[in-house]
Amino acid sequence: MKRLKVLMMLLAVVGIAFGQTSDTWFLEELKMKADLGDAQSQWALGVCYREGIEGAMQDDKLAVHWFMKSAEQGHAKAQYCLGMCYEDGKGVARDGSEAVQWYVKAAVQGHVDAQTWLGFIYLDGRLGQPQVLEAAAAWFEKAGKQGNNMAQLCLGKLYYEGKGVACDYKRAVSIFEAALKSEQAYVSGAAAFYLSKCYRFGRGVPQDIAKADAFQKEALEKGWDEAKSLDDLLKDL
Length: 237
Prior knowledge:
Helix content: 55-70%
Strand content: under 5%
Radius of gyration: 20 Å
Largest sheet: none
CATH architecture of the largest domain: Alpha Horseshoe
Order of helices and strands: HHHHHHHHHHHHH
Number of domains: 2
Structural class: mainly alpha
CATH topology of the largest domain: Serine Threonine Protein Phosphatase 5, Tetratricopeptide repeat
Shape: elongated
Number of helices: 13
CATH class of the largest domain: Mainly Alpha
């Protein structure tokens, strides 16, 4: 869980993209814009306090303060960050239900990380939510269409196993092929592993042992073997 969420926050930080240096004057300018009600600046200021960057002292409560102001204006990145604060209990009391509400607000606006995380939440019933595989598949589908390879991998597995969606090997193969392009070895390796099974048993594709062996070799090179499963991977996220 920590690995994925840290990655998401780092992506959010990079997304500030104001183009200024880390000098103190930048923080002051950001505060001025935030005080005037600029949602983007409020979100960015929240990130600065959350991470202790751009001259800001790390302060979770101030981060929540600015995330809230921005989120209430409908800023999707702030809504997602606020959801993380409620989930982790950073700067605010831990509240899974409140976290999910903010994730949903961000996700319906197309925030791909929020969509992916909601997929995980409903995949195994996190944050007090019931396990709803249909909802997990729906959110993974939305994130996958935006190019999130992890979401594609999880969606492919659901189609492969017929969980939350009707079993469709051909669809699963197509999705695994998309996830195979991931630059993250543990994602592309898992996709290769499932593709090897599809080709070995002729599921969704004509049986082709040579291709199956090639994909299995790729999976092994990326750390996957027959003893591993996607479920094991997801337990670590």
